[in-house]
Every structure is written in structure tokens, then in C-alpha cells.
Specification:
alpha+beta; 15% helix
């Protein structure tokens, strides 16, 4: 095995280990198999997803201090599995949350989530020149970045998982749209994925 390939595989393994640890949680967070969630398969690739639309769910992944739903952020866990013999390129991955009426919500980068919890100026209150202690932004949390989906390449027989964050409230009939999954060697697009986030019985 060449040093470059060994380095890439080691980096992927290290990233997976970093994502599995949740500070303050009793048990480390680990994603399940793609097929254990609502999912769709195209060729050798299966993509599964689960919306973390309840507080008890978000606590398992982000701990009790980070209440994403309170600030209108819906985290969706996405798992991509490659059961083929060729690597899959995820660099152009395009993911959207699609409502039943066709509205599309693009994901928000974890670094941009801080603005959703930034305290605004209160109308009618005169600003005092006296410096006041700054309140910590609850969205300034390393867990948001650590657990975001970050895989760019998926080796044969491997899987990757992580969260996409949407500025949206969960609605009945929500779907996940995923495009930009390509065969690494040929650059050929693998058919796009679109499936309901409600797991079928």
C-alpha cells in the first residue's frame, strides 16, 4: 500500500473516531447502517438519513447543552455506503431538505450557525455605554463542526456519516434530495437520490 493511500485511509479513520465522541454524553455517538434509516439505493451506493427532530435525539449526538431545535436548526444525519469495487467521489455533494409542497432548504454550514443564536438589539431600549459581559453564543460549539458530514471520497466497501444542518422546522412529508455522487475514476454521475425521511414500515 502506498504512503499516500495509507495516509488517506488513516485520515478517514481518525475523522470517524473524532465524530464518534460526544463530550458530556454517557455513550459515544455512532451512526447506524444506511439501511437502518429511511434510505435509497442506486447501484453500489446506499444513502440513509434520519432527522434529529426531537430533543432526546439531539442530546444523543450533541449533548444536553446544545439545543439546536430551540434555534430553528434541524440536524439530519446522513450515512453513505459504497458497496462497489470503485471509489465514490463526494466532493460535489449537493443535499437539500424538500418539503411536501416543493420548498427546498439548503444546508447551513456549521460555521454559519452562530448567527442564528446571536442576541439582537432590543427595540426601545437605549444602549448603555457601560461595557456589559458578553453572553456566550450557544452555537459556538465544536461539536457542530466535528459531527458535520465532511467526507470527500469514499473508498470501496467503506461508509461515511455526519450531519447536515437546515434552518427549518420538521414537517410531515419532508424528503431528502442528494445529488453530485460520482464515480471517482470516470467522473460519471450516479443517479440522484430523493426519498422521504419517514422510514417506511
Amino acid at each position: 500500500m502506498s504512503p499516500i493511500v495509507r495516509f488517506v485511509i488513516s485520515s478517514i479513520t481518525l475523522a470517524a473516531l473524532n465524530q464518534s465522541v460526544v463530550s458530556g454524553a454517557d455513550e459515544p455517538f455512532r451512526a447506524g447502517a444506511a439501511a437502518s434509516y429511511a434510505h435509497q439505493t442506486s447501484g453500489p451506493v446506499t444513502i440513509g438519513a434520519k432527522p434529529y427532530d426531537k430533543q432526546e435525539l439531539t442530546e444523543t449526538a450533541f449533548g444536553k447543552k446544545l439545543d439546536l431545535l430551540k434555534y430553528g436548526v434541524l440536524p439530519v444525519l446522513v450515512v453513505v455506503e459504497n458497496k462497489g469495487k470503485e471509489a465514490v467521489d463526494l466532493q460535489s455533494l449537493d443535499v437539500s431538505l424538500v418539503a411536501s409542497d416543493g420548498r427546498h432548504a439548503p444546508p447551513v454550514a456549521p460555521e454559519d450557525l452562530m448567527r442564528l443564536a446571536s442576541p439582537g438589539k432590543r427595540p426601545g431600549i437605549k444602549q448603555t455605554p457601560i461595557p456589559m459581559p458578553k453572553k456566550k453564543n450557544p452555537m459556538n460549539s465544536p461539536e457542530l463542526v466535528e459531527r458535520a458530514f465532511a467526507a470527500k471520497m469514499l473508498p470501496p466497501g467503506d461508509s461515511a456519516s455526519g450531519f447536515f444542518y437546515f434552518e427549518a422546522k420538521p414537517e410531515r412529508g419532508d424528503k431528502l434530495y442528494v445529488n453530485g455522487v460520482r464515480e471517482a475514476r470516470s467522473g460519471k454521475d450516479i443517479m440522484y437520490f430523493e426519498f422521504p425521511l419517514e422510514q417506511q414500515p
